[in-house]
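User: Teach me something about this protein's shape.
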Amino acid sequence: MPTTARAEPAVLAQAAFGHGPTWDAGTASLLWTDLRSRTVHRYAPDDADHCMEVPQQVAAAKPRSRGGLLLHLDDGVALYDADGERRTWLTFWARPGVRAGESTVDTCGRLWANTVREDESGDGWLVRVDAAGTAHVVLSGLRAANGLAFGPDDAQLYLVDSTTRRVEVLAVDPVSGSASGRRTAFEVDGTPAGLCTDAAGAAWIAVRDRGEVRRYAPDGRLDLAVPLPARRPTGCCFGGEDLTDLYVTTAREGLADPASEDGAVLVLPGIGTGLRSHSFAG
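Assistant: First, the predicted structure itself:
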């Protein structure tokens, strides 16, 4: 699919495994992590990229309505206070060989998060975590669950399975949080990783083995593919003042001869219109 869109470096971070981009509208900044380096980053356009080390692999950081951050760590979900000095475990689920996967927050402020076995042999799970820390298992036996994102009305939850190369969808009751009707929305020619959705209900997906970010229409049709200067994109989200800029995290891990953009955070200015992210209610 031809396009005139071009990706530009936003942060030349050389991340081993950039992950979990989230636009924090309250601070007009991008939260992202380097999973392998155990660091949480906050980047404000036209400003520096600030970094905080944490004690284990971290897949994502989400803003909290009470201030501070929620962190999706290998062993569970933790809350950090506003100055990053105090950590409190909200939900603890440590399992040998299991790492944090993807996460998203719904309109009621609940966290949805999945886990992945490092060898992608299965037995991962998807949970819904409420503000008090109660975790409800939504799906189990997931092989390589990756991208996780709600559609515009929070009634559909998209879930990526990298091993099957499918993007699946769950029907969700936005009020109760109950989920059902798991089905395949579309298949990806390549290995899908993280994804986000836009205001029109289309899905934007980082295709890990193709060095591309793609847009799939609500009916599952591929209607845009944008080549990237980094070979291993890992996730994407919309940000900027009007949510029109697409940010893409990337990885250097496993590359014998990484270029300067491998491991960078990239941005595609003005490529679409995204959805406002929500803060965790706890």
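Now, about its shape. The domain at 8-31+96-268 is CATH 2.120.10.30 (Neuraminidase). The mean pLDDT is 94. If you'd like, I can walk through any region in more detail.
User: That's plenty for now, thanks!
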